[in-house]
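INFO batch 0412 | record 1 of 1 | parsing
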Amino acid sequence: MDPHLQAAIEQAQKSLNEGGIPIGSVLVRDDKIIASGHNKRVQESNPILHGEMDCLNNAGRIGSYKNTIIYSTLMPCYMCAGTIVQFKIPKVIVGESRTFSGAREFMESHGVEVIDMDNLVCTQMMEQFIKDKPELWSEDIGDS
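INFO prediction complete | emitting tokens
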């Protein structure tokens, strides 16, 4: 498995262990992880603290994002995709999009390369979470 996707999965598991939504993200430059994060909507009662947003927040001010890749265990939503487009992150690698199709077309229409790994671990983790906590999942995706 891609070690950066594995690191994102570990972040997702961390969120789940904290009682949150199992979505993790890492930001990579020159094949090195420079930031990581996970969904903290529940833990910090913050509606915009998705995994990608937490990761970028943890990166801080790094100047240009043009030579970075962001990994996420789940296809980014429109909010996170908008941030990816705004910061001109050229590539997104996602664990899966079966449980949530997200904003792939939006990112691609703005020149972002999107690679869906269709990873079974990511899919099973989200399917189990959605089964166990459907009301929390609906709230997270703005469907409640």
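INFO post-check: The chain has a mean pLDDT of 96.
INFO record closed
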